[in-house]
Amino acid sequence: MGLISGLFRKRSYTTITGSQLQKMMNNNNILILDVRSSGEYKGGHIPNARNISVDTLSSKLPTLNLYTDSEIVAYCSSGGRSARACDILSKNGFNKVYNLSGGIYFYKGKLTKN
After folding, report:
1. Cys-Cys with 35: which of 12, 13, 67, 85 at CB 3.0–4.6 Å?
2. Which residue ranges does the record assign to the Rhodanese domain (predicted)?
3. 3-class DSSP assignment, residue 58
């Protein structure tokens, strides 16, 4: 895809706020995907988030097949890596993909460490 067409390509995911994520978390059929490094994840993450680095996401897509029609919210530190992750997911048949605007710093809930 050329640079110009890439600039005008329609995004196939939705950007959400931290408060929207907190409302969505009541849904049992949601996957929260932390696409940061494992070290960042261990330093603090959104409860029940699954950690798959954006750099390894493409190779780990088969492990997410159960979530093809589920809501998937990706987040990172600021929103850049999670936007890339959302593009990867959308292009590979995941239908309800969301990017947390501003990353983990805009999530207002308590973080879990492990």
Report:
1. 85
2. 26-112
3. helix
